[in-house]
Amino acid sequence: MPLRDHFRPPVSRRASWQEIHGMWPANIVQQLKKQLPPGYVSAPLVHLGSQIEVDIATYERDDAQAGFSDTAGEGGVATATWNVAEPSVAVETEIPDYDEFEIRIYDAERERTLVAVIELVSPANKDRPETRNAFVGKCAALLQKGIAVSIVDVVTTRQFNLYTELMAFLGHADPTMGAEPPAIYAASCRWLQGKRRAKLETWSHTLAVGQPLPTLPLWLTPRLVIPLALEESYEKACDDLSVA
Fold first, then answer.
1. Each residue of 56-101: pLDDT tens digit?
2. Which of 61, 75, 182, 224 is the most buried (most CB within 10 A)?
């Protein structure tokens, strides 16, 4: 069955994109359970970014050591006062928080070592420079640790391509993405550490509404790979939510 546009009617009237993104990781985990070699496990992680207020205060403990006080003349010792200079930057801002729809694959026999991550892009990951930078930085950090990263982006309402931004951050380009990278795509990436230099390898696909989803390589070790059949898990998620 083809990829649907979950961000616009008529599909969005049947099930929201949040419901699809929430169901899809669980179906990928169920799919991987049948494919992962012994000793490997997978788990979903879904976190919706939210705006929160944080109140930070400093409290004096009831059992504070006697002899210290913030005032002199009361039998204590006055602490030194440090006059802080004006800050270089003082602006109202938001605490960075972003959506996470991902599947993590662990090597349980190596103390649950993280070996691969599958990222499902959400609209919030693409809507502002700071959230795009956070997503790209996270993926780059994982790759630099030797963790394989797969990115699946079916968000049709945001035109940014986070895979090409990741490649630019790493100092490379993927010519298959063209001069105007597509808004929806899927890619698998890994960074292999050689004796002298590292080697970056990627497998990328342009997606299209009405077309089947591809199968990506899911690397568990430099030589161990299994197929990540996106179409199978995606169709199961749509079927579970009664999305035709």
1. 333 444 554 544 445 545 555 555 677 888 888 887 766 555 678 9
2. 182
Residue 177 placed within a domain: yes
Query: Which tens digit of pLDDT belongs to each residue from 163-196?
Result: 999 999 999 999 999 999 999 999 999 999 877 8
Q: Omega of the bond prior to 10 within 30 degrees of 0, cis? A: yes
Burial label for 32, CB within 10 Å (0-12, 13-18, 19+), is buried
For the beta carbon of residue 156, count every other beta carbon within 10 angstroms: 18
User: How many angstroms separate the CA atoms of 235 and 241, rounded?
Assistant: 10
Q: What is the DSSP letter of 109?
A: G
d(CA 164, CA 158) in angstroms, rounded, equals 14
Q: Which amino acid is it at 238?
A: C
pTM comes to 0.81
In a domain, 30, yes or no: yes
Distance CA 129, CA 104 (A): 25
For 22, the domain range is: 11-45+99-240
